[in-house]
Design goal:
This protein is 39% helix and 12% strand. It is α/β, with parallel strands linked by helices. The protein has two domains: 295 residues, NADP-dependent oxidoreductase domain (TIM Barrel), CATH 3.20.20; 31 residues, no CATH class. The strands form two sheets. Strands 9-8-7-6-5-4-3-10 form an eight-stranded parallel beta sheet, covered by helices on one side. A two-stranded antiparallel ribbon has the order 1-2. Helix 4 crosses helix 5 and helix 7 packs across helix 8.
Length: 340
């Protein structure tokens, strides 16, 4: 396993992040305690150190399992990310949302479940469209100054909100967001319209959730196998099916699993990107870990990009028009260095 710097920080994290939403058997699915322990052992033995969870995952069981595991291992080896926002009470109106009160309460509860004194990376989980972003960043900065959190991050939030937040943080001397977690895969490329350009501008690492499209990009639905995706899902429509066929074709060409191709595509997009790979079986993780040994060539990347292309809309597509490029660059577009 190689390691990447998380955003503009000096924090070194493994090039794959282990998603633990399935740690626990609530809701009739998931990995039990022993299996979860074995999955984390397998990940750590491969050099993985980046774990992703949240206060709400399996009603808190995910954090509890991780807490029990890391309390018997080297806590400082692991980079532990968790999230706040989502409800863990139906009787307290402030036990959900982005507000400071919920942030402080949720973090204290997460620390207890995780059996640790500090969280390495705290995400805002989902934007509530109510709480001022300065309230969020000041709260996270206070937690960082208290030593309860090391770094701030944000998930599932509009690009303009994140950009405003990081700009305010820079002006005020608060800790900025170093990572952005969004749905991103060959089946879900809309973050390329605003979110990913914003993340690149601020030097944020993108940590995609559902990089395998909920399992659709593994090709199992093409083989007639069943899973948790419902037949009417967009992940199984004609467009998604054609994308998956392209993934499977390249996987056959390389002699690897379709999941390797889909995951590697996110890792070779020219910006800092660490996909979150969830697992409820050891075999799933063992297979996904082989992704680090796969490399897609330019022709294969082009084939995948073409199959999964989306309209950027305005102004993204407008900027690509030849007349616009000619007028903006005076005929020197191809001779001018572009910012990555």
């Amino acid at each position: 396993m190689n390691y990447k710097l998380l955003g503009r920080s000096g924090l070194k994290v493994s090039e794959l992040c282990l998603g633990t939403m399935g740690f626990g058997t609530e809701s009739g699915w998931g990995a039990d305690r022993e299996t979860s322990f074995t999955i984390m052992d397998t990940f750590a033995n491969a050099g993985g150190n980046f774990l992703d969870t949240a206060n709400i995952y399996k009603l808190g069981t995910s954090e509890k399992i991780i807490g029990e595991y890391i309390s018997n291992h080297d806590r400082d080896y692991f980079v532990l990310a968790t999230k706040y926002t989502l409800k863990d009470s139906l009787t307290n109106p402030n036990a959900s949302g982005n507000n400071r009160k919920n942030m402080m309460r949720s973090v204290e509860d997460s620390l207890k479940r995780l059996k640790t004194d500090f969280i390495d990376l705290l995400y805002l989980h989902i934007w509530d469209d109510i709480t001022p972003i300065d309230e969020v960043l000041r709260g996270m900065d206070d937690l960082i100054r208290q030593g309860k959190v090391n770094y701030a991050a944000i998930s599932d939030t509009p690009a303009w909100v994140v950009a405003k937040g990081n700009t305010l943080a820079e002006l005020m001397g608060w800790s900025q967001f170093v990572a952005l977690q969004v749905e991103y895969s060959l089946l879900a490329r809309t973050p390329e319209r605003e979110l990913i350009p914003m993340a690149k501008h601020f030097g944020m690492t993108v940590t995609p959730w559902a990089p395998l499209g909920g399992g659709a990009l593994t090709g199992k639905y093409l083989r007639g196998e069943h899973g948790r995706i419902k037949p009417e899902s967009n992940r199984l429509n004609d467009r998604s099916t054609n994308i998956t066929k392209a993934v499977v074709s390249i996987a056959d060409e390389l002699g690897v699993s379709a999941s390797h191709v889909a995951l590697k595509w996110t890792m070779q997009q020219g910006f800092s990107c660490i996909p979150i790979v969830g697992a409820t079986k050891v075999s799933q993780l063992e297979d996904n870990l082989k992704t680090i040994d796969v490399t897609l060539n330019d022709e294969q990347l082009q084939k995948l990009n073409k199959a999964s292309a989306i309209e950027l809309g305005f102004p993204g597509d407008f900027f690509k028009e030849e007349a616009v490029k000619t007028n903006t660059f005076g005929g020197f577009y191809d001779k001018v260095e572009k910012r990555i």
